[in-house]
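Sorry, explain these tokens?

___
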Amino acid sequence: MKYSRTTMALAVAGALALTSTLTACGDDKKESADTNAAVTLNVVGLLPGAKPEAQQALAAEVADFQKENPNITVKTKDYEWKATTFAADLAGGTLPTVFEIPFTDAKTLIANGQIADMQSSLNSLSYAGNFNKNLLQYGQGPDGHVYGIPAKSVYAIGLHYNRDLFTQAGLDPNKPPTTWDEVRTAAKEIATKTGVAGFAQMSKDATGGWQLTVDTYARGGRLEDGKKATLTNDATKASLQFLKDLRWTDNSMGANFDYDWTGINQAFAAGKVGMYTSGQDVYTSLVQTNNINPKQYGLTMIPLSGGDAGVLGGGTMAAVSTKASANEKAAAIKWIDYHYLRKYTNQDAAKKLAEIQIASKQPVGTPELPIFTQQQYQQYQEWIKPLVNVPLDQMTSFTSKVYDAKVVNEPAIATQDVYKALDSVVQAVLTNKDANIDQLLTDANTKAQRAIDAAG
């Protein structure tokens, strides 16, 4: 894997600026924790449907954690975050004590008092001051306290492709598309010569809007300008026209236009999709849940065009229920450290987790974007290098370029509502040959602006 020698533009809000201290306005106001008290901690586990090997690896990790913390009993719950169900799950109290949220949702949850203040707990970690401040700030409240903790490395969207289908279509799997025109050509060749969708697009449960945002950014457009919705921009129109051409002119998108994140992963792993866009970290899920054949997998950069073109980036934060007691919060920060973060800062922890994953035939070394610094991530890669079992040589056209790319955050205000407004636009373009792109975007822009205004 190659890395840029320059400062990476990985921060979700722009260039990565590093901080050596963690600033806070004070400690969260909770009763003192009894660190020796027995605690049962409910946490998010794997995605529903994860293979037994993945469950075995998680169980081994839990067992090792409990050996280190004999007073804490960890119970995992399979869970997949979805924009359409999360609010109800949170309000209904069905989430575990430790759960995961997207960067984009943290500010709203903090403002609504729906996630716990974790400042004092976070301060107990020796590396608390080493987080990238541009990532950490997404989980900070107006008081400067940390409520959401960066837990999974920042992702950047890549173009995932099936190397076997490329070969069957007479395409070179070692030379994936670098422009949108080349994506279109490859999709048509795959569809014509193999009979499966050459390219597929997510379209529901806010994933349609998410991926249309990806397409927009890649062409230099944006969906918000401050508090103004800008869904009618030329880049979004061009992105929709591209999909329309693939669907109705080339007939290269198959027959399923109702994909969400789970569905498109399943179809891709089954060899029913030649190409699609998603976070570069999805390979782990493709292995754990969809049993993908590593030999067929390829990852490359999403094509970028236009002066302000960028790659959409995002990430996941660990959050704790506001109902958590002081003892549960103390246990939660230990689990967050052990399960999510310690591998990046401790060589023994990195190797131990990798060995657990290897023993359970799980992927080790899936490309990530650093949560702390590029140097720290490179050190982590060196620690696990002998155990890496991911086909990194089939991902170099992504990993050799992404660190020099401009990574752009998701729309900052009413993110999920903006995405939902665009879902119906994507669906209409893929199912109605006569869909009026301009009118669809005008209507969606009105809905998005309403949501932005409501968010304040």
In short: The chain is about 40% helix and 15% strand.
